[in-house]
Structure formats: C-alpha cells, structure tokens
Amino acid sequence: MSVPKVPRIGLIVGSQRVPRACLQISEMVLKTIQDTNPSAALSLIDLLEWDLPMFNEPGVPSQITSPDQYTHPHTQRWSKEIASYDAFIFVTPQYNWGYPAALKNAIDYLYNEWKGKPAMIVSYGGHGGGKAAAQLKQVLHGLHMRPTERAVELTFPDREYLVKAATGQSLGLLSDVEGQDKLWDEERKHIVESFEELLSLLRHPRDN
Predict the structure, then answer these.
(1) What value, to the nearest 5°, has the Cα angle with vertex 48 and ends 30 and 199?
(2) Alpha-carbon distance 25 to 166, whole Å?
(3) For the NADPH-dependent FMN reductase-like domain, which residue ranges apply (predicted)?
C-alpha cells in the first residue's frame, strides 16, 4: 500500500522592504498552522532572499513549459522553486490600496508553475489590507489558480502597533506567555479555517 503524498505548501513572504513586519507575520501564520496541522509540509519563500530583478524575460511565461526554456538563471531557479509546491499562502501588506510591486513582479515571472494550484491570502495593514487581498485574488484568478473564499485580514489595533510594524520592531506574535492575550487571537482562528479550505481544495483537484 502506497503512502499518500504530503502536499508541499509554499508560504510567500510578500514584502522585500527593510525594515519590515512581513517576515514575523509570516512566521506567525506558519506557526499557527503547524500548531493545528503538525504534519503540514510548509516552507517559507522569502522574496527578500530571492531578490528578483524587475521582470526581464524575453519570452511570454504562458508559452513556457520547462525551466530550461527561460533565458535567465534567476528565472530558471525561481521556476523550479515554485513548480515544486502544490499550493501557496501569500502574506502581503497593503501599500496605497494595493499589494507590493515585488510580489506582483515575482508572480509575473511565471505562469504554468502557478496554474491550477490552490492559494490562500493573508493581508495586513492599518485596516486589514482588504483592498490588497482583493486585487491579489483577482490576479490569482487570472492565472487560473484556486484561491480560497476566505481571505484573512490582520488589522493593527492602534498607532503603536503601526509604528512597530513600519520600523520592523517585534510585534510579540510568537509570545507564549500564559494568560497573556496574543495579537490577533480571533484572526488566528480564521487562519486555521482558511487553511482547512486550502487543504480541501488540494483534496479535490480540478483539470487545468
């Protein structure tokens, strides 16, 4: 009897800004999921570490079916990385009612590597980042991805948290002090619910 394959899920850290809050928020999302789904195969994909230049491939991504068909080594590496995952979680801030250019750029490099795969969106900002999430969801639909119905919006509760986030200070998201309320306690439940929807999409694939 064969052992069922555990889906590989890439959690994309959608901001390259330094300093930034995106990495610690992404780590919180990852830990929240792992606490309730310890067998989940999750990996962080940090766009700051990838540092992709502005899209510079001469070919049209939708016409490319193999990493070797890309011109640039950085695109070939990015293609192989994204192709190795079965689904994605996008963690994104909201900038001026939209999501970061670095995230759009990373998406635009590829097409078939994204196509047909389930996706989940976690946005954050002073008002939760809902406009960024809506724009990103539209783009994912354009790639024929399968975004979850529930998008998770994380709202900073006050100006103190906004300043901490903007300057890269710790938000205390991974604190486990007994009896102490965590930031976004309720929203962490939404993260788990959205992830369960993502798993359901993985269990019910569709033909591309």
Answers:
(1) 30
(2) 13
(3) 7-150
Q: Are 130 and 122 in contact (CB under 8 A)?
A: no
Domains and CATH numbers, the chain: 8-173+182-203 (3.40.50.360)
Q: What number is the average pLDDT over the span 104-129?
A: 98
Residue in the block written with tokens 């509760």: 157
DSSP β-bridge partners for residue 154:
124
Rounded (5°) CA angle 28-30-36: 105
Nearest 5°: phi and psi at 181? -65, 140
Which residues fall within 8 angstroms of residue 179, CB to CB, at 6 or more apart? Answer: none
- Say if CB 131 and CB 94 are below 8 A apart: yes
Per-residue pLDDT at 122 exceeds 70 = yes
Given a cut of 90, whether residue 3 has pLDDT beyond it is no
Average pLDDT score, the chain: 94
Beta bridge partners of 121: 90
Question: Beta-carbon neighbour count of residue 155 at 10 Å?
Answer: 15
Supply the DSSP symbol for 188. H
- pLDDT tens per residue across span 133-189: 999 999 999 999 999 999 999 999 999 999 999 999 999 998 765 444 579 999 999
Q: How far is residue 90's CA from residue 30's CA, in Å, rounded to a whole number?
A: 11
Q: Is 131 exposed, middle or buried (0-12, 13-18, 19+ CB in 10 A)?
A: middle
Please name which of 182, 172, 52 lies closest in space to residue 105, comparing C-alpha atoms: 52
**What's the pLDDT tens digit per position in 78-89?**
999 999 999 999
